[in-house]
Design goal:
Belongs to the beta-defensin family. By secondary structure, the protein is an alpha+beta fold. It has helices spanning about 1-20, 25-35; strands at about 35-40, 45-50, 60-65.
Length: about 70
């Protein structure tokens, strides 16, 4: 019975920490915030790489301003 109270307390602390987050940040969301797109492999012209989308070979690509 004591373990139930301990689990309830841990669950309460975890849920309280999650309630403070505005949104869950994922690599895809951070890429879209930079006005980028996720592409498999390397970025092709006129795009350049600014980060990763979290996949094995996916890149966050942003369109070049000068092209």
């Amino acid at each position: 019975m004591r373990i139930l109270f301990l689990l309830l307390a841990v669950l309460f602390v975890v849920l309280q920490a999650v309630a403070g987050e505005s949104d869950f940040s994922s690599p895809v969301h951070s890429c879209r915030r930079q006005k980028g797109v996720c592409m498999y492999g390397q970025c092709q012209r006129p795009y350049y790489r600014v980060g990763s989308c979290g996949g094995f070979r996916s890149s966050c690509c942003v369109r070049s301003r000068w092209a």
